[in-house]
């Protein structure tokens, strides 16, 4: 996985939802930032940190597990990065991401996952088979809402959603995964 992302992978998108979220946020972490394409949208580059396990364009080349900071972030982008191997690998990294999320209501983790489709160049990696049921299980585990669910095509493809902190206790929240904020 690391060699593929270091030597072969090519960037495929800039997502307008991410750009909008960056404009509304103060301190931002991009986990698995790839070529760090979202940094240019930050109001101040000093408040945007892109980390990546393989890509030298990151501000820091590191596995999210080993990343050390005393900051908390009101926006964390995880586009295609918390997406490999097994449940243990995924949850160890997502636990770390949730710990880095600011406690304030409205703080947001933007997720993009690939349940097992080849990359644009045909390469197939050892993807974790994400499902929306699993994403919901984790939203209960972390006490986070799901918003902005979107997907291309009807079956099997990549999908995106946000985990969001709310100011209501999780048990009292009504979940509208399609609400676009
Ligand atoms: C599919 S690419 C997406 C890159 C970028 N987020 C984008 O949307 O264009 C996934 C990136 O996540 C990085 N990555 C995978 N596992 C990671 C980890 N545990 N910690 C940090 N980066 C990771 C890879 O090196 C790769 O650059």
Quick structural gist:
This protein is α/β, with parallel strands linked by helices and 181 residues long. It has helices spanning 2-7, 16-24, 87-100, 132-142, and strands at 28-31, 48-52, 60-61, 75-79, 108-113, 145-151, 159-164.
Q: What is the domain total for the residues?
A: 1
Helix content bin: 10-25%
Broad CATH class:
Alpha Beta
Topology order in helix (H) and strand (E) letters = HHEEEEHEHEE
Listed once per kind, the bound small molecules are: S-adenosylmethionine
Number of helices: 4
Question: What percentage of amino acids are in beta strands?
Answer: 15-25%
Task: Please tell me the overall pLDDT.
Answer: 93
Specify the structural class: alpha/beta
Shape: globular
Rounded to the nearest angstrom, the distance between the terminal CA atoms is: 33 Å
- Mind describing the biggest β-sheet? 7 strands, mixed
- Classified in CATH, the superfamily is Vaccinia Virus protein VP39
Write down the Rg: 15 Å
What fold name goes in the CATH topology slot? Rossmann fold
**Low-confidence segments:** none
